[in-house]
Write a structure and sequence with these properties.
By secondary structure, the chain is an alpha+beta fold. It has a single domain, classed as Lipocalin, CATH 2.40.128. It contains one helix and ten strands, in the order αββββββββββ. It has one helix at about 5-40; strands at about 45-50, 55-60, 65-75, 80-90, 95-100, 110-115, 120-125, 130-135, 145-150, 155-165. The chain has a ten-stranded antiparallel beta barrel with strand order 1-2-3-4-5-6-7-8-9-10. The termini are far apart.
């Protein structure tokens, strides 16, 4: 075997090794994203929030391995004053919160940027408002959701829910 053949074999071995390592990293990333999506399962159910002005509801259900569908609405004096259709979806290697709200021309997607067993934070910094949607599971099991604008706490709106189902 010539020196050129030995160099070629070493290069081939290096390329194959690199491809295997990249494949393992990619599989690890996919497993992490799926794990991130799985960590959102605590949202499943129906939630109700009461304030002086309105009663708000939000519900989530699991639809397969890569999607959850949800809805939210607010009632004031017996009239529904706001409603939205929601999805949590695993798209490629990212998790998105997708909101379909009447006052927007099309759905708005927010990317999951932080998740654990008690918090999920979604962002779309290009959207006018909100730019951030945060779900917090309290130790009591209650749900605290807030939406906010550009600067943290700017135009922040808080919702407090209790599980009803």
């Amino acid at each position: 075997m010539s020196t050129a053949d030995t160099k070629l074999d070493r290069r081939s071995l290096l390329v194959v090794s690199l491809l295997v390592v990249l494949g393992l990293i990619s599989q690890g990333q996919k497993a992490q994203v799926k794990s991130d999506f799985e960590q959102l399962s605590w949202l499943v159910g129906t939630w109700r929030g009461e304030s002086e002005k309105a009663t708000s509801y939000e519900s989530w259900e699991r639809i397969g391995d890569r999607k959850m569908k949800g809805s939210g609405f607010r009632v004031v004096k017996g009239d529904t004053v706001f409603s939205e259709i929601l999805r949590l979806e695993l798209v490629g290697d990212k998790v998105f919160y997708i909101a379909d709200v009447e006052h927007n021309r099309r759905e708005v997607a927010f990317r999951l940027v932080k998740v654990n067993r008690s918090e999920a934070q979604f962002e779309n910094l290009l959207h006018d408002f909100p730019k951030r949607i945060v779900y917090l599971r309290k130790p009591s099991g209650d749900l605290h959701v807030y939406i906010e604008g550009e600067a943290r706490k700017e135009n922040r709106v808080d919702f407090h829910f209790k599980r009803v189902e």
